[in-house]
UniProtKB/TrEMBL annotation, chains A, B:
Organism whose genome encodes this protein: Sphingomonas limnosediminicola
Keywords: Isomerase, tRNA processing
tRNA processing keyword on record: yes
Residue positions binding substrate: Y111
A family per Pfam: PseudoU_synth_1
Name of the protein: tRNA pseudouridine synthase A
PANTHER family hit by this protein: PSEUDOURIDYLATE SYNTHASE (PTHR11142), TRNA PSEUDOURIDINE SYNTHASE-LIKE 1 (PTHR11142:SF0)
């Protein structure tokens, strides 16, 4: 048996999310079925993060155990051929220790959120960005973002379905940058609550529009109440950007 | 009557190309039908370049005459609402002189070609890049590209369907640059022959793979014979990037 680590890119558009669902296609099911076709084995593929419907990945980390002996290249190319035409691509694959776990060994998760900030809607990036047609105040958004960095009770920014034991998380990074016609929000933490990134981005967009002052972010955080949330940003602009592990 | 200049972004994937076709959807037809819905007028939309099936535009220039009085904002937003769900977006719109012509007044056309140069296929950019899994030699490609810059008879790089009066064109720019996992080829000329960019990129990819020496590009050019062509790059990676006009 070999435990393989996979790094996977996917377009979340056609999927119900990472995790297997009864009611529609998922990234996990697509990969597991491709593996079964190749190896005859039924093995679960575990990921560092379970992205929601419509959320993308630039570099999702995952692992799977395979009994059949194979070279990494054969496994990667076989999977990439078999997942077609689904928009999933196995970027890298390497053997890891048997106790390495994509989710439980993970010590850091990074997300990118892309806002297209111009008058005209997206044509080429439709479904891959959140289109906000009014000019956003990036400086104000940055001030608001700074209030979220650190160890806080993020109850306000947590979905009703969140399964985390505690609402207390440490947000290490929350950067807001203009890049041409886009605004990029990069966040980093050991772990996130369900919908945390989209909730934070939704509120920061209200700051950017001038509907909230930057300090309103701090007030919403202190309220520790989901009702204090502005709103959730749509999944389209969200990308799982990478996972970190101890050496 | 007002003549409007439009700058348009589109994903060429679902279209038979820019130009109206009997056998499938086109960008031109989609825009003309949206205009007719808004204004009740049937007016042709003329573009700086007629992109082929599957070729995209970052900023296509076009014009159309409209009798009904409208503000630029109303026209742009109306068109963008009516072309949905097609991946077309009118980025800018402005009134121009009655004798301004998107095609005939154009003094420069720019194209971008994107090659995804990594082992794994594209997931997020499927249909938007040409995937070449073997490492390309960018330096050699640049040497080959330099042989195409200038005034030449480009018969070798011209499709059988090309309607240009002369195969002699002046290629002002042909740059090859690595950008992360991608290789970008930027070309610029007053005008191009049909399939010229894709033919040049196809041959330069052969140089990048080491199947051709850089000098073979010069030999192919001198042959002035379509049979000397390596092959055409696919439409997926090609973007009409912009058109220039006199002040």
């Amino acid at each position: 048996m070999t435990r393989w680590r996979l790094i996977i890119e996917y377009d979340g558009g056609p999927f119900m999310g990472w995790q297997r669902q009864d009611h529609g296609p998922s990234v996990q099911q697509t990969l597991e079925e491709a593996l079964q076709q190749m190896t005859g084995e039924q093995a679960p593929v575990h990921a560092a993060g379970r992205t929601d419907a419509g959320v993308h990945a630039l570099a999702m980390s995952a692992h799977v155990d395979v009994s059949r002996e194979m070279t990494p290249r054969r496994l990667r190319e076989g999977l990439n051929a078999l997942v077609r035409p689904q928009p999933i691509s196995v970027l890298e694959i390497e053997p890891v220790a048997d106790d390495w776990h994509a989710r439980f060994s993970c010590t850091g998760r990074r997300y990118l959120y892309r806002i297209l900030n111009r008058r005209a809607p997206a044509a080429l990036d439709r479904g891959r960005v959140w289109h906000i047609p009014v000019d956003l105040d990036v400086k104000a958004m940055r001030e608001g973002a700074a209030m979220l960095v650190g160890r806080h009770d993020f109850t306000t920014f947590r979905s009703a379905q969140c399964q985390s034991d505690s609402p207390v998380k440490t947000l290490d990074v929350l950067e807001v940058e203009r890049s041409g016609e886009e605004i990029h929000l990069r966040s980093e933490a050991r772990s996130f609550l369900h919908h945390q990134v989209r909730s934070m981005v939704g509120c920061l967009a209200m700051v950017g529009r001038g509907q909230w002052a930057p300090q309103d972010i701090g007030k919403a955080l202190l309220a520790r109440d989901r009702a204090a949330l502005g709103f959730n940003a749509p999944p389209d602009g969200l990308y799982f950007a990478g996972a970190s592990y101890p050496e």
